[in-house]
Specification:
This protein is mainly α. Helices cover 76% and strands 0% of the residues. It contains 5 helices and no strands. Helix 1 runs antiparallel to helix 2, helix 2 packs antiparallel against helix 3 and helix 3 packs across helix 5.
Length: 121
């Protein structure tokens, strides 16, 4: 069952995380408009999908799984960047780690802090 409030809260948290991510990436590297759009869309998409998802898992596992699945385009974009002296594989692992953390943070704030739990089936 879908809770509109849960979708809105999770999406807003994703937007806030996207703003933080934009500030960090803007400071650390010079990105094209396409790269910036993909990186900013990642947390927002993760938040929206966490909000509409009907998986009945523990909230922390739900956030990590949704973060990795929905954040794959963001991870691949991060892997294509070369702002630091890491290899592409290290960038890919860093990207997947970041989107898993974003999924966890979104679910933490949505479920544990704002008490927007999944509705029963």
């Amino acid at each position: 069952m879908l809770s509109v409030r849960r979708v809105i809260v999770a999406t807003v948290i994703g937007i806030v995380l996207a703003g933080i991510m934009f500030a960090v990436t803007h400071i650390l590297s010079d990105l094209s408009l396409t790269e910036t759009a993909i990186i900013l869309a990642g947390p927002v998409l993760i938040g929206f999908i966490c909000g509409i998802s009907a998986f009945h898992l523990p909230w922390w596992l739900h956030g990590i799984i949704i973060g990795v699945i929905a954040g794959t385009p963001t991870s691949l974009t991060i892997a294509s960047l070369k702002p630091w002296s890491y290899t592409r594989w290290e960038h890919l692992l860093l990207g997947f780690l970041l989107v898993a953390i974003y999924g966890f943070i979104i679910e933490l704030w949505t479920t544990a802090v704002f008490r927007m739990r999944h509705l029963p089936r």
